[in-house]
Amino acid sequence: MGNVDKGKAPTVPSSNWAKLQKILPPVAVKDKEKSSKQKKSEARRAFINNDKAKQTKSNGLALGGVSRYIGQTDFGRNGQSSSHEPIAGPSKVTVPSPSNAKEDVLLLPAPADAPFSALVDELRIMVSGRTVLNEAKKAPGNYIALDCEMVGTGPNGSESALARVSIVNYHGHILLDTFVQPREKVTDWRTWISGVRESDMLGAPSFEEVQKQVAELCEGRIVVGHAVDNDLKILLLSHPSPLIRDTQRCKMLREKAKTKHPGLKKLSEIELGIRIQQGSHSSVTDARATMGLYRLHKTEWEKQLHHTTEAYRAKVGKKVDNSTANGKRKREEEDDDEDLEEEAQGQSGKKGKKATQQQFPGGGRKGISSGLGLVIRKNGKRVESGGGHREERRSGHGSSGTSSGNWWESVDD
């Protein structure tokens, strides 16, 4: 109502309004004004938060997608979850954990028959993501644990596609944790078990990019995992079997679980006294759990595979040594072949002839079968290397009529 003009009587309120005024408390008007202010304040805060969210999203896209994350793992004791704290990690990008659905790690009573109680306590803390690591323990090292989360593609989600990859080192430090852009249309996100949602794919890197990162981290290292063949298969990667430690195939763990195909959840509860996978899975937690199981049996496990592993490393090391000088050796062999051809054409003279004799001590050079694979020319014409002709040369009765004891000397006559 506007201001009342002077000389005019104020409008008498209706009977209903008069009754309502008697019921309403005197501070109702102030409360109404306060509520309006609160609404404005809440609207402003919502706008600011929305703006921050947009900036975070744009920053993520500017960084090339969610290529690396700082994961957060819930740590529960007696069914009660504590406050969230970020795990130790080198990344300074403050983006949320890849999986919106977090997995509780519930501590159970430590196994009574645990041979190394101190180690079990350390591994329980590692799996929970509460280990504080120095810089030296954040390096990739010689051992890594790999775990993947899949989503469904095809009819009714019957096929699997890679959606998330997590790799941790020996101490549980995250080396890689990223969503992956599916290459096919997803028909079932399997969120109840994978923890992956469609919104998580915003800005996610391509399959090829993640595959390359995983291959680089796995190369030359021992890869730990649970049914890790499935993870490598979904990544379209292969890894030498002497460098794979599969907790599902470990003899000691099979005997403990009393089954040929023990589950990771059961093994973690029996061996480490922790309960995981209570809801949607976390590939980081699962990777840490497999690393914990491996470390618990590492001494005996490696003792059983020592011969196989060392034999493989020796074989690979020999190949690496050969490959380092591959370019030089290839050039030397090409130079040798050129010298032989020049020698056959009479361009090297006695000096070339002497060099040729030194290149074939005892009738042949290591790695080459006595010149049978070489093309030898005489006076610019190709000399056939048939069996009968070769025997004539060896006996000194070739077409040139020479009687040299070394058959290849007849090339220069």
From TrEMBL:
The keyword Lipoprotein does not apply. Residues 29-45, 312-321, 381-395 have a biased composition (Basic and acidic residues). Its main location: nucleus. GO terms for cellular component: nucleus. Residues 142-303 form the Exonuclease domain. InterPro entries: REX4_DEDDh_dom, REXO1/3/4-like, Ribonucl_H, RNaseH-like_sf, RNaseH_sf. One of its GO terms (molecular function) is nucleic acid binding. Residues 1-53, 73-98, 312-413 are annotated as: Disordered. It is found in: Nucleus. Keywords: Exonuclease, Hydrolase, Nuclease, Nucleus, rRNA processing. GO terms for biological process: ribosomal large subunit assembly; rRNA processing. Residues 333-344 have a biased composition (Acidic residues). Belongs to the REXO4 family. PANTHER family: RNA EXONUCLEASE 4 (PTHR12801:SF45), RNA EXONUCLEASE REXO1 / RECO3 FAMILY MEMBER-RELATED (PTHR12801). Exoribonuclease involved in ribosome biosynthesis. Involved in the processing of ITS1, the internal transcribed spacer localized between the 18S and 5.8S rRNAs. This is RNA exonuclease 4. It comes from Kwoniella pini CBS 10737.
